[in-house]
Design a protein that fits this description.
This protein is an alpha/beta fold. It has 19 helices and 57 strands. The strands form 12 sheets. Strands 20-36-40-42-44-46-48-50-52-56-55-54 form a 12-stranded mixed β-sheet. It has an 11-stranded parallel β-sheet with strand order 19-21-37-41-43-45-47-49-51-53-57. Strand 54 and strand 55 form a beta hairpin.
Length: about 850
């Protein structure tokens, strides 16, 4: 019989690629991907299957005994997606061949997301204006914004964290279709934790989970109060801090956060009459009230006060911490006990005060003493000893020694010792020392301060009505003990009882205040316009930061310094001065700079360097040098013949280097000459957009790089704009204006006068002469009533002006010489209907 061959057939399927036919992020990151399937029944085990993708070989597989097949291919071969083909073929002994193919599509499903944080407040910088909070106002808040991209979608959630505060916000679309987010935090939180993090996590139906995060740091504007005194100061602002620096101050200037130990030594000897005693009490009451008020501020440090009343010897010494609730009453009660009488014992007063400084100590505290007297010393202490025999019985064996150097005695302490078998009081509560003979005692003296933190037994010496060399020597020795623990002693002479020369040995820097009326004592201590000193010659460096520098004293309402400034700002804002800090004052000045442009007639020759940042510099009185440095600066020269540089050197050392000298050899006159002679070079330095106001006097203003505003003010000024499109305003007086490179505007304001000169006007380069505010827009068609153009002997045009429109009858009241332009040039510009070079 004939056996027919069984028909040959095969079928193949692809079940899965990567488990589901989709390749998510995790699977795409794997090196190998599994592809599996089945074949029809009867397909021989071991039959090879060929796998291709879009015609490219990607691997092979073999049939298993159960009709399945599986293999792992390199993921990189299929990651971009496409059609996978599995092909199988069979043959038999009869040369029959059959085959089959299976097809499936690989779909890569990557998921991606990216998050960004925008610059917080536009520049990642929180200024005083953005963080300050005034009483009664809501706490300021800061918006933090950003974007997301990739596969993020509207409605996804963002976690934004500052410190321990996290806000969860939704992704939204903005007007341009971008995906954005926004969260809001308190300014206080950002100041304490100046780092912002944002994160997003998204997932899809294919098992993808992706996330991204971003981090940004915010710079917070911080500032310090730095003050000088009535002497010549060199003051340095901090790096990266926006400091308020007042170079000249008068009286005590309390710094926020600083701890103080302040002693008041008051002479109430017989030469101080009862009327002056009352005035001294009233003045010190005012001083203590002021110090007490400031001590209650949250920003204030600890303030310890010592009040010493002395005449023949120290009458009392009262010490308080001004934060104690009864401190002010304790001081005023003590003041009420002051009476006139006795001689003058500097030594005892100085030693008592020195002991107090030893006692209060305080690392980081600032120590200060006010020594108030009306006369030279007439008493002193003598016979000082610390070893005392308190057993007065006869016999060499009857010796009991009180050793004050090892006793660790404190005022008011009662000390007993065993004498002849009995416990005896050798120092009573009043400091009296006793020697005992059996049951009888003898007062051998009173303990006095030794100025070294301990006590000694001494007796009174001196005539009481005159001053001997011994009196002076003892007084000065005691003063040196005081200086050892308090290096800032301010001597104040009441009325005319003692000369400045006699006071100088008892003042730490030799700069005394003498001839002060008793009723002006408070002003002398706290500062005020009733007791005013000439300005010093200061050098101030703002360094990096948006600094505010005052070269001279600042006066408001009869007071000076920061407290006066704070009271002024508080009044303007209608808030409690105690709630204002340095940042509030700096912000107010920056927003109202013209209110602080004040000058005293006797200001010093100050040199102010703004340094890096947007600075405000006030020269005040005197002939000053103001250098803005990098940034957009605002300079006020004030009274005097000032030099103002909008850009230029960052410090005295840089200026000295340019002058080929050292800082120690810089003189104001030398610097003035150098800058005057190199104005063309200085005009190209920097790029800040600065504002320079010369004020009164013969000033030199140099804008430097950038688009600057220069206003000479009163006086005969020289203005040099430098590079950039500058505005030059000569002001009153006969001024010389040099625009420099750029399209400059030579401008006159209402009330300006004089005979001014423009050195480099060029209409073709975009320069213009602006007379619109000077003439008030009243010209209409009567140009000849206001302006008449002539020509000088050099052929330069002269614009003659009568601001009242009375040119025909009264002639010109001021003039502008335009060097390099002829009369015809100017008349042509005035006549042109398209004239933009001369603005009327």
């Amino acid at each position: 019989a004939t056996v027919e061959p069984r028909p040959l057939s095969v079928e193949i399927t692809i079940d899965t690629i990567g488990g589901d036919g989709f390749l998510n992020n995790a699977e795409l990151s794997e090196k190998l991907t599994t592809i599996s399937g089945t074949v029809s029944e009867g397909t021989p085990e071991g039959t090879e299957i060929t796998l291709t993708m879009d015609g490219r070989p990607i691997g092979t597989a073999t049939v298993n005994s159960d009709g399945t097949w599986s293999t792992a291919v390199e993921t990189s071969l299929i990651k971009d997606g496409g059609e996978v083909t599995a092909e199988i073929s069979l043959s038999d002994e009869y040369d029959n061949e059959v085959g089959d193919k299976a097809f499936t599509t690989v779909v890569p499903t990557p998921l991606d997301v990216e998050i960004t944080i925008d610059d917080v407040t536009g520049d990642n910088f929180l200024s005083f204006a953005e963080t300050n909070q005034l009483p009664g106002e809501d706490a300021p808040t800061i918006k933090v914004t950003g974007t997301v991209s990739g596969n993020a979608a509207e409605g996804d959630y963002i976690n934004v964290t500052v410190g321990d505060v996290t806000h969860t916000v939704k992704v939204q679309k903005d007007g341009e279709g971008k995906l954005v987010w926004e969260a809001e935090f308190t300014a206080e939180n950002l100041m304490k934790n100046p780092e912002v993090s944002a994160s997003i996590e998204i997932r899809d139906d294919y098992g993808n989970v992706v996330n991204d995060s971003a981090l940004t740091t915010v710079n917070v504007e911080m500032g310090n109060l730095i003050t000088g005194n009535e002497h010549d100061n060199v003051l340095e602002g901090g790096d990266e801090t926006s400091d308020l620096i007042i170079a000249d101050t008068q009286g005590f200037q309390q710094q926020p956060g600083q701890d103080y130990n302040i002693a008041f030594i008051v002479d109430t000897s017989g030469s101080v009459n009862s009327g002056d005693i009352k005035s001294i009490i009233a003045s010190l009451t005012k001083v203590f009230n002021s110090l007490h008020q400031n001590a209650q501020f949250d920003s204030s440090g600890k303030v310890n006060i010592l009040l010493v009343d002395f005449d023949t010897q120290v009458n009392f010494a009262v010490s308080v911490d001004l934060r104690d609730p009864n401190a002010l009453k304790t001081l005023t009660d003590a003041l009420a006990k002051m009476t006139s009488g006795g001689g003058t014992n500097y030594e005892d007063a100085f030693k008592t005060t020195a002991n107090w400084f030893h006692e209060v100590g305080g690392e980081g505290s600032e120590n200060l003493t006010y020594f108030i007297t009306d006369g030279k010393p007439t008493y002193y202490q003598t016979g000082e000893k610390s070893l005392i025999d308190v057993d007065s019985r006869s016999g060499s064996s009857n010796v009991v020694t009180l050793d004050l150097s090892t006793l660790n005695y404190t005022a008011g302490q009662v000390v007993t010792m065993k004498i002849a078998g009995h416990e005896r009081v050798v120092i009573d509560a009043q400091g009296n020392v006793y020697s005992w003979n059996a049951s009888d005692r003898q007062n051998v003296g009173v303990l006095r301060a030794d100025g070294k933190g301990g006590y000694e037994l001494s007796t009174l010496g001196g005539a009481g009505s005159s001053t001997s060399s011994t009196t002076t020597s003892n007084a000065h020795s005691a003063f040196l003990l005081l200086m050892g623990v308090c290096n800032n002693v301010e001597a104040i002479g009441i009325n005319n009882g003692i000369s400045a020369n006699d006071l100088k040995p008892y003042d730490s820097d030799g700069n005394v205040m003498s001839g002060i009326a008793a009723d002006k004592l408070a002003e002398a201590i706290l500062g005020g316009d009733n007791v005013q000193m000439a300005g010093a010659q200061d050098t101030v460096h703002g360094n990096a930061g948006n600094d505010i520098l005052f070269g001279d004293m600042v006066l408001f309402g009869g007071s000076s310094g920061f407290d006066a400034m704070k009271a002024y700002v508080a009044d303007k804002l209608g808030v409690d001065a105690s709630k204002l800090g340095v940042s509030h004052i700096s912000q107010y000045i920056a927003e109202h700079p013209e209110e602080f442009d004040q000058s005293q007639n006797d200001g010093g020759k100050d040199v102010l360097f703004g340094g890096l940042g947007d600075d405000i510099l006030y020269g005040g009185g005197g002939s000053d040098l103001l250098v803005g440095g990098s940034g957009d600066d605002l300079l006020f020269g004030g009274k005097g013949d000032d030099i103002l540089l909008g850009d230029g050197y960052e410090s005295a050392s840089k200026l000295a280097e340019a002058m080929n000298t050292t800082v120690g050899k810089l003189t104001f006159e030398g610097v003035s000459d150098f800058i005057s002679q190199n104005s063309d070079v200085l005009g190209g330095l920097g790029s800040g957009n600065d504002k320079l106001y010369g004020g009164e006097g013969k000033d030199l203003l140099i804008g430097g790089g950038g688009h600057d505003l220069l206003n000479g003010g009163d006086g005969n000024d020289l203005l040099f704009g430098g590079t950039g499109n500058d505005v030059l305003i000569g002001g009153k007086g006969n001024d010389m204006l040099i625009g420099g490179a750029g399209q400059d505007a030579f401008t006159w304001l209402k009330g300006d006068d004089g005979h001014d000169v423009i050195k480099d006007f060029n209409a073709k380069e975009g320069d213009r002469i602006d007379l619109s505010e000077l003439l008030g827009g009243n010209i209409d068609n009567n140009l000849a009533d206001y302006i008449q153009v002539s020509q000088n002997s050099n052929g330069d045009a002269v614009i003659n002006i009568n601001t009242d429109g009375q040119m025909q009858s009264q002639g010109s009241t001021m003039s502008i010489t335009v060097e390099g332009s002829s009369m015809a040039d100017i008349n042509s510009l005035l006549a042109s209907p398209d004239n933009t070079a001369i603005i009327l």
